[in-house]
What we know:
By secondary structure, the protein is of the alpha+beta class. It has helices spanning 36-51, 58-75, 118-125, and strands spanning 2-5, 20-26, 81-88, 91-98, 128-133, 139-146.
Amino acid sequence: MIWTDTSSAVSAETPHVAPREAALILNPADRCQIETLPKAARNLVEEHLTRWNLASLIDDAKVVASELVTNAVQYAPCTAVGFALRYAEGALRIEVEDDSSEDPMLRQANGYEEHGRGLQLVGHLSHRWGFHRNGSGTKTTWCLFDTSSAVGSNQD
């Protein structure tokens, strides 16, 4: 697991939030370690949203991060999953990159099914979500959170 933090300090002269970013490369090649990958993403979310003064978004962002990483690990034949948080004024973006050729599909889980609700949760908890194909043959699934009311808030 590799992580980087390219956080920028917010200048006292400007009321705007400087762009901030944190990223992980998760390696699902060892199938025994799959359960730890969503946890690593959740830990990164908690650490950086606390640092970025977005504590009110932590719980929802952790659920979303966990769902997106779990989907990437379950459905992609990848050797690495990219996970990134990007925060700029007004928005927090969570991204998960994998090498699956399958598009993410919003399913309707029936009754007591244990699977099939992940993207429904992502859609419910975030402002919006989507995916795009990258030039390298990978895809990025992303979601956005509105941070305009979260900045400066504290976790209850």
